[in-house]
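Section 4.2 – Deliverable D4.2 (structural model, holo form)

The reporting period included a commitment to supply a predicted holo structure for the target in complex with zinc ion. Inputs used:
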Amino acid sequence: MKKIIILSTILIIFLAFYFTPRYYPNSYVNKMINSAAAFFSMGISINDLISKYSDTEKNGKIKILLVPGHEPNFGGAEYKDLLERDLNLTLSEKIKNILSKNNKFEIITSRNINGWNPELEKYVNNNKNEILVWINNMKSSMSKLVNNGKINVVNAEMGHSIAPLKSAILLYGINKWAGENKVDIAIHLHFNDNPKYKGKPNFEGFSIYVPEKQYSNGTSSKILAKDLFDEISKIQKVSTMPEENVGIIEDQELIALGRYNTSDSLSVIIEYAYIYENFMQNKKLRNDFIEKSASSTANAINKFFESRI
Ligand SMILES: [Zn+2]
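Output (structure tokens):
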């Protein structure tokens, strides 16, 4: 009897540990699964991009899409009188001005001071159903690969808020439009936010999100992200948020990066700072930072090509 009690106690303790998620942290489980993962087929390779860049007369210009995060009058972080969506826009204009000096680039923005890029807006408005069908098809292709054990689901450690349907269609629409228009690189520009901890803002610094490595655009996007990281880390510290402090974070769920493998372009999301950081509250320091962020980003993109030619 004593033996049975001891054995069942051991069994109960074992089961309790086994089914407690903390016992096997997600990152550990994912690492184990990833080591046996099959991959989506490779998308745009760095070599393809560099050889395109080396002769744009023949191959056409490198198409770079700048996406200032969120919508003209909706979404994004807000702190005191600062609106993230407006900061993103200012930054986007500055990056565009610098990159446009390189005549091997064609710079497209998803929106500017006048609102949405009209071509993109028309595309999304006129193709809502097609976009929804496409999302479903991509989602079910991915589900099949997951069910066959070819792709592993990786959940974000920090969790993400769910985009409202209208914003989600827009983001997927941008991916679809970018694919059909052969956009090579999509750069999503953001300032970060996080729920206040103990009543005051906490984390600081920048982070770069890239598509999870199983996606077609994962490998090449990460190489671009490393170049961006090298430049931006000269002007801003890396995020102090524990899930972001590696600087470059792979993510399978963010639509902008190509959730369900929906982005053919190299894609990155850059969070330049937390919106409530001290220097962001001072107009001069904030403008200086936006100026420096624009030149760091543009420098990284120019170097990405020039250093590999
Ligand atoms: Zn944002």
